[in-house]
Backbone:
């Protein structure tokens, strides 16, 4: 167990001083680091992060939801070593290479080729931007130029570039940049925590879907797409919903000739129990965005998969009908090789089946939180487990984070929601360490 994480060796203190003098950290009010310094990480090993003093911290959030198979995974390491000696990167406009072709083929095959074409970028926000532009441009190419608006779900989060932020509904991120954003429409979330008395999760989903249907009844002629996070709205304090919502959204989009965009940046690659989250509802979106876990947490990469008829609407002699969007590192060969190694691990290790066992173990162990009088809504979807803490304290998240580090566990609550989103390599012993550390942190944070 580490000692107080604010007490550092000279080596760690030096790293903290250097980083605060030069690095502007993401999603952070930097002044808080005067009291709560960043944790210097020297190396990673499986599910663990290790500082310069040798203190070990179980990575309970997969380093912001990206690390699927542990740090320094030998299979991914080997794939990168092999690829770096052959080709690190080449412009993808007018050129191609084996890793990007193989990855595109395998991703399409994982959708049973219902989403047959891949457009690559570098991060999740960029993938959302691509999906929005692709949808709007499709409708223009099809002679419906008025379809330029988008519908998002209350509490939805899709990234922090301007287009992605325009279809997000998290005030903390949106409000400061509101003058720069385009207008979108917001419909109620199917979050089952918002169910009325006597409603089931499926009832709550149906009620939210009816609100979307009513909106499209009035505005379908101006609407290009509905964007949803299938099964779990992660940034919305791990809001989970019944799969019926996705089936009803799919049907509404079909009736009203509106695209359904599945944002699977956080929930794809096995997080919700099926390989892609939308598969848990038995539906297929028109466009799907992927990032985060795609390279196992190694390198930036994102991709938009689309139905063939969307691709075909851009296939023409006129340059202006083409999808004129690009990123310098589109289809980076190293990143694609890492992603191919991730897919190999899924196939060879039968990961989805193993994860069902891990998820059951986590949920069984997590029942201990139900004994705490301020805990409510213990819930799980696949390898995402969460509970809410009934506390009116804006500092709870930060205080809990440091209390968990003292127990050798990396956790970052979203508001008053504590969640586990660990790598897919946890042993039973590591699951016990995760839950026990989280429980002790709660007892040390909430009187």
Residues:
């Amino acid at each position: 167990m580490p000692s107080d994480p604010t007490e550092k060796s000279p080596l760690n203190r030096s790293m903290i001083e250097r980083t605060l003098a030069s690095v502007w950290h993401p999603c952070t009010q930097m002044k808080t680091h005067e009291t709560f310094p960043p944790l210097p990480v020297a190396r990673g090993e499986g599910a663990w992060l290790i500082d310069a003093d040798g203190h070990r911290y179980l990575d309970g959030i997969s380093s912001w939801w990206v690390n699927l198979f542990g740090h320094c995974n030998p299979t991914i390491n080997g794939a990168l070593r092999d690829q770096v000696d052959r080709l690190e990167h080449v412009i993808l406009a007018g050129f191609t290479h084996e890793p990007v072709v193989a990855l595109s083929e395998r991703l399409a095959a994982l959708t049973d080729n219902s989403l047959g074409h891949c457009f690559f970028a570098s991060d999740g926000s960029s993938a959302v931007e691509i999906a929005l532009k692709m949808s709007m441009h499709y409708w223009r190419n099809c002679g419906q130029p008025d379809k330029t608006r988008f519908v998002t779900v209350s509490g939805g989060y899709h990234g922090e570039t301007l287009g992605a932020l325009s279809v997000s509904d998290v005030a903390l991120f949106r409000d400061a940049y509101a003058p720069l954003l385009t207008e979108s429409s917001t419909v109620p979330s199917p979050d089952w925590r918002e169910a009325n008395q006597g409603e089931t999760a499926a009832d709550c989903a149906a009620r939210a879907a009816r609100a979307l249907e009513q909106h499209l009844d009035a505005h379908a002629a101006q609407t290009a797409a509905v964007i949803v996070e299938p099964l779990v709205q992660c940034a919305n304090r791990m809001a989970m919903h019944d799969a019926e919502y996705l089936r009803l959204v799919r049907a509404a989009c079909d009736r009203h000739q509106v695209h359904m965009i599945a944002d699977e940046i956080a929930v794809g690659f096995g997080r919700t129990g099926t390989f892609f989250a939308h598969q848990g509802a038995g539906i297929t979106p028109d466009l799907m965005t992927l990032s985060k876990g795609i390279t196992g947490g190694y390198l930036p990469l994102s991709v938009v998969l689309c139905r063939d008829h969307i691709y075909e609407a851009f296939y023409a002699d006129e340059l202006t009908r083409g999808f004129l969007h690009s990123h310098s590192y589109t289809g980076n060969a190293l990143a694609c090789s890492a992603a191919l190694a991730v897919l190999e691990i899924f196939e060879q290790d039968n990961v989805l089946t193993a994860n069902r066992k891990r998820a059951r173990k986590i949920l069984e162990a997590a029942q201990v939180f139900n004994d705490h009088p301020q805990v409510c809504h213990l819930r799980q979807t696949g390898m995402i487990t969460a509970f809410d803490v009934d506390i009116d304290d804006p500092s709870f998240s930060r205080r809990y984070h440091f209390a968990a580090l003292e127990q050798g566990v990396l956790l970052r609550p979203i508001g008053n929601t504590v969640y586990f989103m660990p790598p897919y390599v946890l042993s039973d012993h590591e699951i016990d360490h995760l839950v026990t550390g989280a429980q002790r942190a709660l007892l040390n944070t909430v009187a």
Q: What stands out?
A: The mean pLDDT is 96. The chain has 14 helices and 16 strands. The chain has two domains: 10-72+350-445, 76-348. The first strand starts at residue 43 and ends at 45.
